[in-house]
Amino acid sequence: MDRTADGRLSVAEERPEQPSYAFLGVRPCDLRAIAIQDRVLAGGRYRDSGYQERRSGAFLIAAECTEPGATCFCVSMGGGPAADAGFDLALTEVVDDDGHRFRVRVGSEAGAELLSRVPHRPADPGTESTTRDAVDAARNRMGRAMPPVDLRTLMGESLEADRWDDVAARCLTCGNCTMVCPTCFCTTTEEVTDLTGDHAERWQRWDSCFDLDFSYLHSGAVRSSPRGRYRQWLTHKLSTWYDQFGSSGCVGCGRCIAWCPVGIDITEEAAALHDESAARPRRHEKEQER
Ligand code: SF4
Ligand code: SF4
After folding, report:
1. Mind listing the pLDDT tens digit of every residue in the chain (290 residues)?
2. If 0-12 CB within 10 Å is exposed, 13-18 middle and 19+ buried, where does residue 168 land?
3. pTM score over 0.85
4. What is the CA radius of gyration of the chain?
5. Sheet holding 59-63, edge to edge
């Protein structure tokens, strides 16, 4: 925004041309996360035209999982190591006595067009079954699992849980978990002016619900404590996300575990909340005691 010589304000939106991105090695949990981002950012209240432009030009080459990581728990979040949808091409790696090769599945016209330009041959039945078996077997080798309970309800029942104090004593509120999470999408708006006041700019920047300013209202931050901020993050991911966007906000990729500098593990926290909830007398039991 600039002030012209006669004192009027002129506003110019600079939108750099969006490059076409190709993503190679997109994991099935990432495909599910992108589907969530599409629901959030491609329509409704959070519609983001920049995202839509970049997304429409994106080419996704998925890599199915045959060796899950120690922090993976996608199966317990309703996903799995197979790429089901949302890719242009999906690769499954095979290394056996017949050598090193990839099985390729086509998921879009753009994928078929690219594959037609790459040397390939029809998959033999042995390769088909080897890759399917390897992906199926990976389902049983997840490094972690969420407790098998209704997480949405659990979070709703845990607002006053003691466990929030425990995790708050360890959490640095650094926001790493939100920066690496493939479904976190929060941004803030930053406005700057030059010293003359004749030129101002507005920027969209990444933000995190662990940032103290994130919940700032007119007289201060609503979530001033680490307890409140961690609780907000976990409750949103596993519970209130359903109310806003119709699904969980966690795809079980495990990145927040891998990148937490103090080793906080979302599956361990959910299990601890479940244990605390299970040990708590139910409301109707308390009423019967009266
Ligand atoms: S990465 Fe770990 S320490 Fe940092 S905000 Fe997340 S849970 Fe807290
Ligand atoms: S909350 Fe953690 S495990 Fe779940 S999608 Fe985000 S980074 Fe992955």
Report:
1. 676 777 676 777 667 778 899 999 999 999 999 999 999 998 777 888 889 999 999 999 999 999 999 999 999 999 999 999 999 999 999 988 888 999 999 999 999 999 999 999 999 898 999 999 999 999 999 999 999 999 999 999 999 999 999 999 999 999 999 999 999 999 999 999 999 888 999 998 999 999 999 999 888 999 999 999 999 999 999 999 999 999 999 999 999 999 999 999 999 999 999 999 999 876 556 556 55
2. middle
3. yes
4. 23
5. 22-26, 59-63, 89-96, 99-106
Identify which of 236, 221, 216 has the alpha carbon closest to the alpha carbon of residue 159: 236
Q: Say if ligand 2 is within 6 A of residue 181 CB.
A: yes
Kindly state the DSSP code that residue 261 receives in the 8-state scheme: T
Tell me how far the alpha carbon of residue 260 lies from the centroid of ligand 1, in angstroms: 5
Q: Where are the domains of the chain?
A: 17-139, 151-289
CA of 214 to the centre of ligand 1 (A): 15
Best mutation site among 264, 266, 269 for ligand 1 pocket (most ligand atoms within 8 Å of CB)? 264
31's CB contacts (< 8 A; 6+ apart) are 60, 62, 83, 84, 85, 86, 87
- Compute the distance between CA of residue 20 and CA of residue 191 in angstroms, rounded to an integer: 28
Nearest CA to ligand 2 atom 2: 256
The closest residue, in CA terms, to atom 1 on ligand 1 is 260
